[in-house]
Amino acid sequence: xxxxxxxxxxxxxxxxxxxxxxxxxxxxxxxxxxxxxxxxxxxxxxxxxxxxxxxxxxxxxxxxxxxxxxxxxxxxxxxxxxxxxxxxxxxxxxxxxxxxxxxxxxxxxxxxxxxxxxxxxxxxxxxxxxxxxxxxxxxxxxxxxxxxxxxxxxxxxxxxxxxxxxxxxxxxxxxxxxxxxxxxxxxxxxxxxxxxxxxxxxxxxxxxxxxxxxxxxxxxxxxxxxxxxxxxxxxxxxxxxxxxxxxxxxxxxxxxxxxxxxxxxxxxxxxxxxxxxxxxxxxxxxxxxxxxxxxxxxxxxxxxxxxxxxxxxxxxxxxxxxxxxxxxxxxxxxxxxxxxxxxxxxxxxxxxxxxxxxxxxxxxxxxxxxxxxxxxxxxxxxxxxxxxxxxxxxxxxxxxxxxxxxxxxxxxxxxxxxxxxxxxxxxxxxxxxxxxxxxxxxxxxxxxxxxxxxxxxxxxxxxxxxxxxxxxxxxxxxxxxxxxxxxxxxxxxxxxxxxxxxxxxxxxxxxxxxxxxxx
Length: 519
Fold this sequence. Notes:
Elements: H1 2-20, H2 30-39, H3 49-64, H4 69-96, H5 104-109, H6 112-120, H7 122-125, H8 134-155, H9 166-183, H10 188-204, H11 210-224, H12 228-235, H13 249-256, H14 272-299, H15 303-323, H16 336-354, H17 361-405, E1 412-415, H18 422-431, E2 437-440, H19 442-445, H20 448-458, H21 478-496, E3 501-505, E4 510-513
Parallel strand pairs: 1-2, 1-3
Antiparallel strand pairs: 3-4
Helix pairs in contact: 1-4, 1-6, 2-3, 2-4, 2-18, 3-4, 4-6, 4-8, 4-16, 6-16, 6-17, 8-9, 8-10, 8-15, 8-16, 9-11, 10-15, 14-15, 14-16, 15-16
């Protein structure tokens, strides 16, 4: 019953996610991931090798049936979100299963309410319909949480799993930890607390042996070895490869460790739209979920179940504390593992409420109906907002297409000072449009490898005669100094190149060719 319910909820969620997927690349890194998945390339740090490898196979399959690359890449995110929903319902069912007063049907149905809220709340919904890695990060976290509790259940007295399965469990746990590392390094804030919880439970049962640790470690190396793909691509580039990845072990190491994002550590500075999203949706889910995890940990009876609750709480807190010290403009998706664990924690409380003898059956039924109607109303409003956002993505792409059509097809240098400049690269690489136009972002040109490549192609250093300013990350003047410097870079290139230099300005919107000196 429980597995069928998990699958049914995941299937319904998947159908809704796909219905919301636009047929064009989404905002942010959507075009970059579309290019990476279509060409089996290398994305920005940390590279996401498993996401790219399996996503490429999936997208090629959909494309072979006539679906466009952007839509296929968006659907890949929908698959990740549906997997997250499946494992989250399974986790909620596991946490509910230790309540003696809970009937089998309640164990399956009680998680439906909080998991449905999680499935359609905007923090997940926004990344479930566009090409991004965050839905798969949530899927991995929910899967890891479910496996963690399942392994602990096998150690509990009279548990359903026998002790001879310890080696098999250690192998499975090592693989899951390795998959997390091969997907996103932030996974350590989930795996480290959960692994410590497993270790404590094994120690209490006198089952913690070096052989198990070695088995788990060896298994984790299998998915982690996928980072070798990034090293291979550094020396043998094919497809769309991140512009800063160059042949050299230092470059490869910096790429897979996310060295360029180190400057974001130590502060919290979400963009205005993210602040609004977090205040309206993210924080209520996050903090109420942490409170439920704490209450569950205090109320837990069996020792192994106490370990499970306290460890899930510790993991949620680690994820939360890290995100509040990570100053990227879009931090909301990083809270998803903590929000997910909190949603799973709500299931046992609902099951207990449904079974409360102090309430007569009519009151319990009425409460369940009211809660269901409230969740349906909320979910419908969020899905409607998702449709509006999807339509906005399509309208924006139509504007970019119109502006791109105004760019002359002959040789020129085009600057779009935005990460979304990869939308134009998508038109060139996947559509074969205007290959003579050199499309770039001024922030890309100043990187070591792109700077060398620019010099080799056009015969001059784009930074010749310029001094790169020292910018303190997070300082009040950082944005102004950066914008001023990149404006100088563009003018310097325009002064030195005989080719037309074009500014691509969607905010106006306008395509503008700069005047040459003396004109």
